[in-house]
């Protein structure tokens, strides 16, 4: 068992970055990012045009570059004319990203560091709620403006946020509790189906679930109820696994949960009343960006509070040594049960969100592939760490999107990357690190 | 609903179960040595079937087909099975070397992740190089149907069951009679002290992977004989079920894996006529695609009452995470 802090030894290049951004607090970064997105909104199109890029790079230029590389790879061994002129897009994209993102980030970040630090210090003495709301508000504004540039960005951002919630809820079980749960896509499926059942059944005419029962113009106000119902249903499903499998330790949970995943998937495939293998479509489009942002932030806050609570610490003790924890008066069963149901609940909520974002669900979406994806995000980012889940979900999502032009090769690059991470950092990039709101938002030393 | 009908289904179940049993053996053996599941094993089964396809096509090109063939079809079949078992064993050794040996001291869950990822890589490479369409396995031996008192048996079915049972017996002999088999059993018994006594851990682990992969390749070719259409996803759909069989038999138990494999096949095949009977008796209309649901529910119930599987030993393992 690797305990405590992960050993990070800053290398040379890391030192340079640290010297550059060390004194910049989170507030400074947010202001700098705000400048970037405002700059892009004002000058993005003309600059991309001037640099002879086909269109504005949507994903920090990674997508554009990988498209060029993919074109190059596809032309190898084929006679189809390859236009070497597209290679010029790579340096042009680099210029674009430097001008729009990197330069303002460095300049504004450094220049406002003093003021941002003063502001952060000023807010430090206020109740935690106020700086938290300021930071989150700024963050939302940045994301909103960034995503406003194209529909593609919007959907990528939404799916990434949902992936963060899903990953963190899986990390509660696989990281904090130290069991290997395979049933998480099943919980997500339950959440997605139950919340869809609620919204589609009540408010929408659907070929699967019949006519709308209520005509209610403010129906979207019931969306939290739908999410809550989905989460609760997932938690009840989790009870089915938890009751038999918490009697023993070892891989038992992994196996029972795997069987559970197959059963849930097969069940939804066979209930014709829920659309069978074709699933349910036509959910109302209620997963707007502010809704998803709010739910995900609330979920992170909730789960972070749980893992830093006494029960959460007891959970870590149970993971490290169950017998010792029990001797120290930890109610091991209660700790494990709470964690497992909590993880399942938030996976169900994530399922409800994704159902109302894609507005289409079917059982095939929640199979072993989804499981592999979720596990990849958890283990890439790092076990037992809220930061790790965020980093893992965001990086795997963005990587997946950015490598999309490589088509099938993407499924070789991402697994290889993950194998490398596992070989060199078996617990993930940022494992075993506490997420402290106050510290994260506080001022940085100006040296 | 006659007795003959039951026997007919029983024979089908034997055939179906022998695929599960052969694959489940690979899972179980690796678990007994390394205490972890080789999640890439289902895809090794797929790779084995495809290697078998390649070898079979090459051999048929060399010896010719039809009346002009130099050797009868069964010789080609035996050669195909042997050569592909050998080649797939090499694949298994590579998988162990790349995905598991660097993680010998790492948390077990990390090794599970590398296994999953290697599985995805194998599948993707298949789609990348072969285009992802379904391929047809050549007909190596002519199909003959025997009618024994109203029960129809094909020569392939008999051969599949005999070959897989033969392989299981061979494995059992190897594990219980040979020096290497003894080393494997010792390693499964205690993987800390036994390496100190001079038994090479890495060699044993590689050998376990090689044997498991060879059995999976045999299962792949036998599967292709019975259902001669190969597709890249056969590893996921089939491999995970074999994994469930390995669990059902008891982790690390060779006999358990065999019996549970046949049992899972039996449950899956028998579900369909059982649903038909229930439908006829109670005038219901339950779809026969409930097969997976019922099979896994039975497995779940068995595991709730026997947490260590049918033949597994109870042990107090602490999850090394």
Mean pLDDT of chain B: 85
Q: How many helix segments of chain A?
A: 18
The fraction of residues assigned to DSSP E strands of chain A is under 5%
Radius of gyration of chain B: 20 Å
> Structural class of the helix and strand makeup of chain A?
mainly alpha
Calculate the terminal CA-CA distance of chain B, rounded to whole Å. 52 Å
What value does the Rg of chain A take, in angstroms? 23 Å
- Strand arrangement in the largest pleated sheet of chain A: 1-2
Query: What level of helicity do the residues of chain B show?
Result: over 70%
Shape of chain B: globular
Quaternary organisation: heterodimer
Sheet having the most strands of chain B: 2 strands, antiparallel
Q: List the secondary-structure elements of chain B in sequence, H or E.
A: HHHHEEEHHHHEHHH
Low-pLDDT runs of 5+ residues of chain A are 1-10
Shape of chain A: globular
Decide which structural class fits the backbone of chain B: mainly alpha
Biggest sheet of chain A, open or closed, and with what strands and sense?
A: 2 strands, antiparallel
Adjacency order of strands in the biggest sheet of chain B: 1-4
What features would you describe in this structure?
The complex is a heterodimer of chains A (447) and B (321). Chain A is mainly alpha-helical. In chain A, helix 2 packs parallel to helix 6, helix 11 packs antiparallel against helix 14 (332-358) and helix 15 (368-381) crosses helix 16 (386-402). The radius of gyration of chain A is 23 Å and the shape is globular. Helix content of chain A is 68%, strand content 1%. With 321 residues, chain B is mainly alpha-helical. Chain B contains eleven helices and four strands, in the order H-H-H-H-E-E-E-H-H-H-H-E-H-H-H. In chain B, the strands form two sheets. Chain B has a two-stranded antiparallel ribbon with strand order 1-4. A two-stranded antiparallel ribbon of chain B has the order 2-3. The chains are: A mainly alpha (447), B mainly alpha (321). At the A-B interface, helix 10, helix 15 and helix 17 of A face helix 4, helix 9 and helix 11 of B.
